[in-house]
Specification:
5 helices; porphyrin biosynthesis; binds nicotinamide-adenine-dinucleotide; precorrin-2 dehydrogenase; 7 strands
């Protein structure tokens, strides 16, 4: 697979839609909540994390399975993260028809973009991608860099924009 170029996109005002609310979708929802305030999750069943985030008003959880033709046309980005590969492919097809950016967690060949591992602190955001061939490599490096960023290596010399504005 060719190397992917890391784009750092402002998602604040953009509608993000996630199908599925299990292990993988919840991990990604948790990551996305730091970047967007417009997140809708469609799933008949949701993890406690997603349910709590919905109760606290951080996202909208629609307790519904995917239904053909209903993907919001104004969605900027869709994650197909159900545990049904056929459903994920249907979601991909509809997004293609509607020209919506789509990621399919069960099939790397259907991804317009790959979901990164993320290590972040303050204004620093590090996205990690291993090209879609070796997911464990992506995880190993995400864990290493997260540790470095949140613990040992992130020293006072690394300033955030709020630090700079205070200076
Ligand atoms: C980075 C991270 C972000 C995240 O997921 O949050 C991520 N995968 C992570 C971990 C992970 N994924 C899988 C395992 C078990 C591996 C094993 O057992 O060997 C582990 C390891 C683990 O979980 O320990 C299984 C798996 N993954 C994909 C498929 C389908 C396929 O390859 O077609 C299958 C088979 C599913 C099945 O069996 O059906 C596909 C994708 N996974 C991606 C991202 C995209 C680019 C990855 C890259 O950078 O190369 C890509 C291509 C598309 C996408 O989904 O965007 C996260 C690590 C960071 C973190 O954990 O924080
Ligand atoms: N990309 C990755 O990193 C990665 C890693 C492991 C697994 N996977 C893939 O992710 C898939 C999901 O795994 P999981 O562990 O999150 O599953 P899970 O069983 O924990 O959760 C599945 C979720 O999908 C929802 N769902 C099922 N049918 C639906 C439908 N028609 N419409 C909307 N929502 C629906 C369920 O309600 C549930 O919330 C796996 O099948 C596998 O292919 C991807």
């Amino acid at each position: 697979m060719p190397k992917k170029f890391p784009l750092f996109i402002d998602l604040t005002e953009k509608k993000v839609v996630v199908y599925g609310a299990g292990v993988i979708a919840s991990r990604r929802v948790e990551t996305l909540l730091a970047f967007t305030s417009s997140l809708t999750v469609f799933a008949p069943e949701a993890s406690e994390r997603v349910q709590r985030a919905a109760e606290e008003g951080y996202l909208v959880w629609k307790r519904e399975a995917y239904q053909e033709g209903t993907i919001p046309a104004d969605a900027f980005m869709v994650l197909a993260a159900t545990n049904d590969a056929w459903v994920n492919t249907q979601i991909w097809k509809e997004c293609k028809e509607k020209h919506i950016l789509v990621n399919v967690c069960s099939d790397r060949d259907l991804c317009d973009f790959q979901f990164p591992g993320i290590a972040s602190r303050g204004d620093l955001v590090i996205g990690i991608n291993a090209g879609g061939q070796d997911h464990r490599l992506a995880k190993t490096w995400t864990d290493k860099i997260k540790k470095e960023v949140t613990e040992d290596g992130f020293n006072n010399q690394t300033k955030t924009s709020s630090d700079i504005s205070k200076a």
